[in-house]
Amino acid sequence: MNVNSRNGVAKAVRRSLGVAPLMLVSGLALADEAAATGPVLEEVVVFGRGETRQVQSVAAVQIEQLPPGTSPLKAVEKLPGVNFQSADPYGAYEWSTRISIRGFNQNQLGFTLDGVPLGDMSYGNHNGLHASRAVSSENIGRIVVSQGAGALDTASTSNLGGTLEFLTDDPASEFGVRAALTGGSDSALRIFGRLDSGELGSLGTRAYLSYTDQDMDKWKGGGVQEQQQVNFKLLQPIGSATVTAYYAWSDRAEQDYQDLSLDIIERLGPNTDNFFPDWNAAVAAADACAAAGFNATICDDQYWNASGLREDTLAYIDLEIPFGEALTWKTTGYLHQNEGMGLWGTPYVPTPGGAPISVRTTEYEIDRYGVISALTARFGNHEVNGGVWVEDNDFDQARRFYGEPTRTAPTRSFLDFPKDPFFTQWEYTFNTRTVQWHLQDTWSVTDAVKLSFGFMRAFVSAATAGPFSTTQNGFDAIVGSLEPETSKTYELGWRFRLGGVQGVASVYQVDFEDRLLAISLGSAIVGAPSALANVGSVETKGFEVGVLWEPIEYFSVLGSYSYTDSTYEDDVVTGTGAVIPTGGKTVVDTPENMLKGEVGYDNGRLFAKVGFDYIDARYFTYLNDQEVDSRTLVDLSLGYRMKDLGFLRQLTLQANVANATDEDYISTVGSGGFGNSGDRQTLLNGAPRQYFITLDGRF
């Protein structure tokens, strides 16, 4: 395999069929319903050996009190062990979005929408899409987070360190119309409309159709971030069975913020960004870059422009049939098609006979479909669930360059898919077939004993991530030690409810083996292949606590604290025999301490909330010689619901303030990858104070 070859083709076939026995011991039961004033810490499960699960959820009422359009990932950042970062106030800017749980990064977690796999939700996703493109935030009914081992029936090949399940809400049983308008900082404008059919005649058919249009300027530099979405969901009872159909279309275009380093921030300031729309400045910088022999110090401070374009279609149809009280069969068929590009205005490849700049793209096309089928049987003290997930995924990826024919003015918009490249550096086609099965027995010998079976992680099939993202020599050097990443989690926990206080507390240890480490070589815009190594084991020890206190009616206090000690246990030995002393170093982008809190009031009409989020300093080199400082963010929301206003069932006026203290901080680390040591252009600073006003009417 040669990643620099033109029109190369790589094929990967992936099957994961292993099972590992697990023993569970459950704790005290908590209420299943979500409280109106906040998320209920629903369930914590303690395992005797093997892996552990701790499950918590965030209800729709919590999501609604965030600025509309906020990423569903940002809605769970308040939960124990969750580290979420983004450079925009919505948490939806995908180049910057990062989530980790207990030291497991995003591509080691599993994500689903109503059970349909979303892949690992990375920026250059090869097997799925981001949740923000799969559903509008207004149509999310609940988000379930599993720390430790995720749900065993999750359709995911990256489910090592936990799962996030996004559940869409069901169509209403009565006819209704919802219309919402949001405006705010940086010319933000979001329009949302939804029509619910209610139950149609004696058939009991229910459906909704929604449309979303969101547009806002970047908070620094030039450019916009915009998205249009359509969601449709239908529920059809057929006797005791239920058919559910869902369709989502999304067209997202976002111009990027410039990746920064600590040196750039010190020299040029944190508001440094791409040159756009100053074409003359970009041309002059590109001339200086060429004159300096394409020296990175001269070339990489600022680029002309950059963007990410994504168009997705996602659909599924689900059939659930109960056979009395003892047996239930559920089958879901789905498809997902994606066309996407990441664009960069690069000075490293001038346009032949034109400007000293070209438009470099990484192009993605996904065409995948699959079936998930499971049978649940209940008899005596047993509830046995077994099923299979099959998926076929065609993933095309290419690196191309498009010309700017003149020095006088740009001719290409970074919000449109370009045409007519003058050079294709490489192109690959991956076909990935996945077959996974699960079997678990919830055996209530007492109220506390269960038996489950589960499976492991598979490799990434892409030219920009995983074992195929290196050179031929790099691949040859690692192929002999290439093993699937595996993890074992041991956890002891307590779930409690004492009067108006409920919560969870747990201590855990994770043994992570055969971890693949990608060392970035050069700046991200150059697109140099990564150096890959099997770094052996990673050990993580930690403690978490989450508490929800309701001292008086309508008033709630939510708090969580997490301590994480995550270290690489082994040194890295390169293909040339050089030793990189990573043993004993802290895992990158893993804060040791995180403290989150939220004080809320909601009497059904007036609601208010103050939330804060503290995370410790984070390293962004494997040898821990570079780090970003700790930060504390404060968010505010205030609103009032007016009810029964004639034809209006409810009218809500809501104000949100993000980063209310105007903290100056680094949000994302690793946007351009991680290196062994030294400063690196791989940081993005977070948005300053932002204001939003929403008017939401329900008819």
- The whole-number mean of residue pLDDT values reads 85
Shape: globular
Helix/strand structural class = mainly beta
How helix-rich are the residues, as a percent range? Answer: under 10%
For the record, what is the CATH homologous superfamily label? Answer: TonB-dependent receptor, beta-barrel domain
**Approximately what portion of the residues adopt beta-strand conformation?**
over 45%
Count of domain modules? 1
Number of strands: 37
Q: What Rg do the Cα atoms give?
A: 25 Å
**Distance between the terminal alpha carbons, to the nearest Å?**
59 Å
Largest sheet: 27 strands, mixed
How many separate helices?
Answer: 6
CATH architecture: Beta Barrel
CATH topology: Maltoporin, Chain A
The poorly predicted ranges are 1-52, 448-455
Level-1 CATH class name: Mainly Beta
The oligomeric state is: single chain
Task: Give a verbal description of the structure.
- The chain is 6% helix and 50% strand.
- With 699 residues, it is mainly beta.
- The chain has a single domain (20-698), classed as Maltoporin, Chain A, CATH 2.40.170.
- The strands form six sheets. The chain has a 27-stranded mixed beta sheet. A two-stranded antiparallel sheet has the order 4-5.
- The termini are far apart.
